[in-house]
UniProtKB/TrEMBL annotation:
PANTHER family cross-referenced by the UniProt entry: METHYLTRANSFERASE (PTHR43591), METHYLTRANSFERASE-LIKE PROTEIN 27 (PTHR43591:SF101)
The Methyltransferase type domain, residue ranges: 77-170
Origin: domain of life: Eukaryota
CDD domains given in the database record: AdoMet_MTases
One term of GO molecular function: S-adenosylmethionine-dependent methyltransferase activity
Protein name: MET27 protein
Entry-linked Pfam families: Methyltransf_11
């Protein structure tokens, strides 16, 4: 039930949902966190609906906007795909060739049941390389997983590796207080890769109502929501050497 705080805040969320969200964001070690995701998988979509989690929709809309047609043939990798929320949004927008990876077998099982993916693999990001050859994908998405204690920002070069030159990367992160240190690190890495000529930034869209806050402390100025960002990058094409 709601304990303390105005009814309009995330405190109105069922306590069980708050506890499940808190558990996966708590600073537990990765194997433990993946186990929690396995256990959460069956209820995950109901919970994020209650949280009014808008990232999959916002990310897919942003990528579609940047992506040149046609889409049906384009090969996309959905990293940390979870139960397939992003795939559903991409599919609605005409993307048909979707591959997914996630560190949780329970989540992959749910994703498999959607029938939206051509290929699904277990992969723990940050500790293992992506199960794909270099320059394989027209676009790579990482929606919701770039945050404290989940996917480290050190994976960016690995995401770039599997992206075709000229291909797109769609990334999201949260701007709530407990993720701010991570966000600063992430943006430093994003900027470094841009300065090195690896990719160019097409979009950094700050979104005020990203999802409902689960605690008073995380809520943006008492709105009861936390904010987030969608980034779109384009991998720089390989420069042609002058013939001569």
């Amino acid at each position: 039930g709601a304990r303390g705080g105005p009814a309009g805040t995330g405190m109105g969320l069922p306590e069980a949902i708050r506890d499940r969200v808190a558990a996966v964001h708590r600073g537990s070690a990765l194997p433990e966190r993946l186990r929690l995701y396995d256990g959460w998988a069956a209820r995950y979509e109901q919970d994020v609906a209650a949280l009014e989690y808008r990232a999959p929709h916002l990310a897919a809309a942003s990528l579609s906007f940047a992506f040149p047609a046609p889409r049906a043939e384009a090969r996309l990798l959905d990293v940390a795909c979870g139960t397939g929320l992003v795939a559903r949004e991409l599919h609605r927008r005409g993307f048909r060739c979707l591959h997914g990876v996630d560190g949780s077998a329970g989540m992959l099982e749910q994703a498999r049941s959607t029938g939206l993916y051509q290929d699904l693999r277990l992969c723990v990001l940050g500790t293992e390389p992506l199960p794909a050859p270099a320059e394989h994908y027209d676009a790579v998405t990482v929606v919701g997983a770039l945050s404290e204690g989940q996917v480290p920002s050190t994976v960016l070069p690995e995401l770039l590796r599997v992206t075709k030159p000229g291909g797109f990367l769609c990334l999201t992160t949260r701007s709530n207080p407990s993720n701010l240190r991570y966000k600063v690190e992430l943006e430093a890495s994003l900027g470094q890769l841009e300065r090195s000529g690896a990719w160019q930034k097409l979009l950094a869209q700050e979104v005020e109502y990203w999802e409902r806050a689960t605690t008073e402390e995380e809520s943006t100025q008492g709105t009861g929501y936390i904010s987030g960002v969608v980034y779109i990058y384009q991998k720089c094409p390989v420069p042609h050497l002058e013939e001569g």
